[in-house]
Specification:
Shape: globular
Number of domains: 1
Strand content: under 5%
Number of helices: 4
Order of helices and strands: HHHH
Number of strands: 0
């Protein structure tokens, strides 16, 4: 019997605990959920909530 496993966001290469915590704040709790949304949707949700020092000077295309 196979148990469905949910990999953490930080299991994706180059995504660490800080990004995983940011994803959790907006309701993304697994790597599968993040992959299903794609790269830009989570940033579009998180961007307005980002603290000024983090959001200033960073550009996402």
């Amino acid at each position: 019997m196979s148990k469905k496993r949910s990999d953490p966001v930080s299991s994706i290469r180059n995504l660490g605990p800080a990004y995983e915590a940011s994803c959790a704040k907006i309701g993304i709790h697994s790597a599968q959920e993040l992959r299903a949304l794609g790269a830009t949707k989570p940033m579009a949700v998180y961007w307005p909530m980002a603290p000024a020092p983090i959001s200033s000077g960073i550009m996402f295309w």
